[in-house]
């Protein structure tokens, strides 16, 4: 049990989950957490952490006890600022906000977007094939999400700022460390920007305009409507960008997998799902325990905060055979898009964008070359900050 802020008798690790060493060596960090126990106390971060697949999945499915309404960040300021978003809500409030977003993000609602994605992807791949090389993150993976999301949301924000604000927002979800504090100015600009959107500066027919209309009509409050713009911009960008960059790296590093995918395009969905598992763009979010809960003999007390690590769960050797290997034939589910009531509401758009890229590449790209990967160091996101790539026809 906890006495004086320490976990007496509980599995404990001295690592800093948000420190440079942990961020630069995530696979080893997650292995240490899984090996230590089902629920592990981190004194340096003053929170619990769960990293085993079965435990993380069970906690995500128990949204009545592992709650998001007190925020999903590891610091109180960001939790206060994100109040009213779909991510940081529970119960009926969460359902109401999620249903409002679902009007724009369901597979059915996105059908009309698919031809646009395929056309834009074909143009992009043709241009990249003519290049000597390119940045696999900023020039390949980020192209569709940035162009498409800005247009669909219907807001006037330049692409560089949009991506910068989104990543800063995720950095502020960590503890109040130097990384989060450095990101806070851009995170606050992102927050203020969303709340400054008015009908006059939201494109008619766009997602933001639909939210503002719902606010005026009372479906959600006007404050909720503006907060929910954040639900569109941030998550719609980074999960897809990091997932697509992982897809490029994995296929470039595994030429036999690329050859198999070209010969059997029916494997495109499997490639996309596997890239998200391997990358796990969102490392995880925190939850607050609503009532005393026993996890494999360890008691988490009511009101304590626990980090649920999707990325660690997706590398759990007890769930996945050779989890570090990219496989087009992997069976079973993963937690790259979360699970349960708070599963990623933008996953359909993310899949569609990655599918469009692959279908554009298959007839045009005979070989993918990748090199010089630079890892992204972020309190909440993981993946590549950059990598060099080349397409050979």
Structural commentary:
- With 393 residues, this protein is an alpha+beta fold.
- The protein has one domain: Cytochrome P450 (Cytochrome p450).
- 49% of the residues lie in helices and 13% in strands.
- It has 16 helices and twelve strands.
- The strands form four sheets. Strands 3-4-10-7-5 form a five-stranded mixed sheet, with helices on both faces. A three-stranded antiparallel sheet has the order 6-12-11. Strands 1-2 form a two-stranded antiparallel sheet.
- Strand 8 and strand 9 form a beta hairpin.
- Helix 8 packs antiparallel against helix 12 and helix 11 packs antiparallel against helix 12.
- The longest helix is centred in the middle third of the chain and has 32 residues.
């Amino acid at each position: 049990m906890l006495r004086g802020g320490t976990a007496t008798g509980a599995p404990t690790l001295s690592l800093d989950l948000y420190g440079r060493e942990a961020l630069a060596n995530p696979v080893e960090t997650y292995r240490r957490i899984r090996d230590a126990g089902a629920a592990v106390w981190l004194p340096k971060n003053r929170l619990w952490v769960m990293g085993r697949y079965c435990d993380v999945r069970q906690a995500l499915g128990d949204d009545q006890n592992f709650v998001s309404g007190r925020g999903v960040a590891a610091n109180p300021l960001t939790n206060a600022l994100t109040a009213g978003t779909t991510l940081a809500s529970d119960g009926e409030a969460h359902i109401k906000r999620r249903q409002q977003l679902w009007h724009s993000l369901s597979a059915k609602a996105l059908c009309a977007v698919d031809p646009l994605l395929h056309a834009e992807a074909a143009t992009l791949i043709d241009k990249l094939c003519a290049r000597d090389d390119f940045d696999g993150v900023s020039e390949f993976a980020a192209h569709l999400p940035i162009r498409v999301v800005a247009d669909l949301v219907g807001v006037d924000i330049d692409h560089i700022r949009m991506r910068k604000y989104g990543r800063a927002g995720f950095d502020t979800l960590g503890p109040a460390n130097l990384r989060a504090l450095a990101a806070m100015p851009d995170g606050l600009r992102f927050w203020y920007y969303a709340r400054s959107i008015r009908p006059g500066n939201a494109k008619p027919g766009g997602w933001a305009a639909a939210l503002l209309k719902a606010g005026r009509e009372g479906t959600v409050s006007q404050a909720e409507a503006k907060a929910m713009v954040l639900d569109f911009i941030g998550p719609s960008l980074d999960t897809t960008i990091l997932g697509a960059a992982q897809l490029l790296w994995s296929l470039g590093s595994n030429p036999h997998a690329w050859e198999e995918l070209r010969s059997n395009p029916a494997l495109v969905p499997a490639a996309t799902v596997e890239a998200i598992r391997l990358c796990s763009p969102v490392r995880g979010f925190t939850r607050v325990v609503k009532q005393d809960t026993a996890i494999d003999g360890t008691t988490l007390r009511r009101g304590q905060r626990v980090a649920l690590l999707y990325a660690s769960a997706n590398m759990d050797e007890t769930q996945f055979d050779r989890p570090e290997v990219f496989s087009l034939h992997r069976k079973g589910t993963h937690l790259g898009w979360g699970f349960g009531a708070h599963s990623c509401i933008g996953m359909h758009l993310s899949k569609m964008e990655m599918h469009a890229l692959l279908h554009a590449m298959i007839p045009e790209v005979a070989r993918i070359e990748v090199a010089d990967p630079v890892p992204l160091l972020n309190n909440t996101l993981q993946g590549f900050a950059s990598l060099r790539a080349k397409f050979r026809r």
